[in-house]
Amino acid sequence: MSHRQQLLSLRLLILLTMVGTVFLLLSGQVNASTPEPTPVEYRVQGGDTLWAIAGTFASPDEDVRNVIGVIKTSSLYEGQVLLLPSG
């Protein structure tokens, strides 16, 4: 590889690194004008299942498993208060 080709390859590598860095910096920005949704309290009733509760609070295009992950509990008991995402 000639010196000219090596220099061109180095410049291309630097350019790609800069573009990637800018992309990563911009993708992490959060819009401050969008408030965080307030969680909804749900009191567990006899016979409730985690799947059924999550299904009630999941949006139509959302996977119920994602809501279960947000609930962050593996067991339910009657009277327990869960904080669930508001739709």
Can you characterise this structure?
The protein has 87 residues and is mainly α. It has a domain at 40-84: LysM domain (Membrane-bound Lytic Murein Transglycosylase D, Chain A). It is 47% helix and 9% strand. The chain has helices spanning 3-27, 50-57, 64-71; strands at residues 40-43, 81-84. A two-stranded antiparallel ribbon has the order 1-2. Helix 2 packs across helix 3 (64-71). The chain is elongated and about 75 Å long. The termini are far apart.
Topology:
Blueprint: H1 3-27, E1 40-43, H2 50-57, H3 64-71, E2 81-84
Antiparallel strand pairs: 1-2
Helix pairs in contact: 2-3
Taking the sheet with the most strands, its summary is: 2 strands, antiparallel
Count of extended strands: 2
Task: State the helicity in percent bands.
Answer: 40-55%
Structural classification: mainly alpha
Q: What's the architecture of the domain at 40-84 in CATH terms?
A: Roll
What is the CATH class designation of the domain at 40-84? Alpha Beta
How would you write the strand order of the largest sheet? 1-2
Shape: elongated
Intertermini distance? 59 Å
If you consult CATH, what is the topology of the domain at 40-84?
Answer: Membrane-bound Lytic Murein Transglycosylase D, Chain A
Radius of gyration computed on alpha carbons? 24 Å
Supply the CATH superfamily name of the domain at 40-84: LysM domain
- Assembly state here? single chain
H/E series: HEHHE
Question: How many helices does DSSP assign?
Answer: 3
* Percentage of β-strand residues: 5-15%
Unreliable sequence segments: none
Q: How would you state the average pLDDT, rounded? A: 83
